[in-house]
Write a structure and sequence with these properties.
Blueprint: H1 17-23, H2 26-38, H3 41-47, H4 52-66, E1 71-74, E2 77-80, H5 82-109, E3 114-120, H6 122-125, H7 128-139, E4 143-149, H8 152-160, E5 166-170, E6 180-186, E7 190-194, H9 199-202, H10 208-211, E8 216-218, H11 224-235, E9 243-246, H12 250-258, E10 264-267, H13 268-276, E11 281-283, E12 294-299, H14 306-324
Parallel strand pairs: 3-4, 3-5, 8-9
Antiparallel strand pairs: 1-2, 5-12, 6-12, 7-10, 7-11
Helix pairs in contact: 2-3, 2-4, 2-5, 3-4, 7-14
């Protein structure tokens, strides 16, 4: 006789895997992400190019599949439940994995060995990452590299969702809370830079009144770098930096500095490269504090595929050579 089912067996509660895979569709996962992002069924349905009833039906289907309430209706829309948060996490990972698979298949189709998608903060955009890519080209020229420059506000969410494989930039204090891993590479001081003919370079013993005359170009009017510069100016009794131009592009920053009397603050290693080729000069305005170290940032739930492993090894080798020089 067959054994009676155990009432405590989870198989009696959740549908067997075959039933899950037979009913679950990628559109269900996309719908969960849109609902969580918009917190409103009507707005989510527009983002999905569906009618509101169709979006509601998708939600009902996925709640039926997992036998759990994923969202609660509120006076202002919908709020995700703890069960919904769990599913959202794994839905994003699944979509990220599929996007990575599409990317790798495309690379193989185009004749490449593999493909790596890298997010790059400004601190690593002009020296570290270019040097690492050049080294990778020597070691494994068959790997296709996709680089996307930006700040943590744009790149870290993409890393969380699996749309990029890693980020090279300054470690962030929120990284641990977001489930991201930091591998410290090196500490990088920050220096103030300007055009090679900036008036302050020839001014002996300039004061806070002198520096207050000049505007700044920085990635943002708030944030860690802004606070660092403000602290350095305060030590000279100068006013906080008045940011006239915001950009996260180092090349744009350098070109604007060359053609203006703006001031900026960038990583010392980056500054050294542009000083050596005569595009910038550093200003004697010490910044006493330091920003977070430069690091490799990865998603702890994502696997390290061979192309990514080779790229990260190239990054580490570049850093080791830099430390030895």
């Amino acid at each position: 006789m067959p054994l009676a089912p155990d009432s405590n067996d989870k198989a009696d509660i959740l549908p067997p895997p075959g039933a899950l895979f037979g009913r679950l569709r990628m559109r269900h996962l996309v719908a969960i992400e849109m609902l969580a992002e918009h917190k409103n069924i009507r707005q989510a349905s527009q983002a999905l190019f569906l009618s509101q009833p169709a979006a509601s039906k998708l939600l009902q289907e996925i709640e039926s599949i997992f036998e759990a309430r994923l969202f609660e209706r509120t006076a202002h829309g919908i709020e995700i439940t703890p069960q919904g948060e769990v599913l959202l996490h794994w839905a994003r990972k699944a979509m990220g994995d599929m996007d990575a698979a599409r990317s790798e298949i495309g690379a193989l189709r185009d004749g490449w060995e593999g493909r790596v998608r890298v997010g790059v903060f400004p601190v690593a955009a002009s020296v570290l990452v270019p040097d690492a890519v050049a080294l990778l080209r020597k070691l494994r020229p068959g790997i296709h590299v996709e680089l996307q420059e930006g700040l943590e506000t744009t790149l870290l969410p993409q890393l969380e969702k699996g749309r990029i494989d890693c980020v090279i930039g300054r470690a962030t204090p929120q990284g641990g809370a977001r489930g991201l891993l930091h591998e410290t590479l090196y500490e990088e001081p920050t220096v103030v830079v300007c055009a090679v003919d900036h008036p302050l370079l020839d001014a002996a013993g300039w004061t806070h009144t002198d520096i207050d005359r000049y505007d700044w170009i920085l990635p943002a009017r708030t944030g860690q770098l802004y606070a660092l510069v403000a602290s350095g100016l305060a030590a000279r009794r100068a006013a906080p930096p008045r940011v006239a131009v915001e950009t996260s592009s180092i090349l744009t920053l350098v070109e604007i500095l060359r053609q203006s009397q703006l001031l900026s603050a960038i990583a010392s290693g980056v500054a050294r490269r542009f000083v050596e080729i005569g595009l910038l000069k550093t200003l004697d305005l010490p910044l006493s504090a330091s920003l977070h170290p430069v690091a490799i940032i990865t998603n702890h739930t994502a696997s390290v595929h061979p192309a990514l492993s080779m790229f990260l090894e190239a990054v580490r080798q570049v850093c080791a050579r830099r430390a030895a020089s």
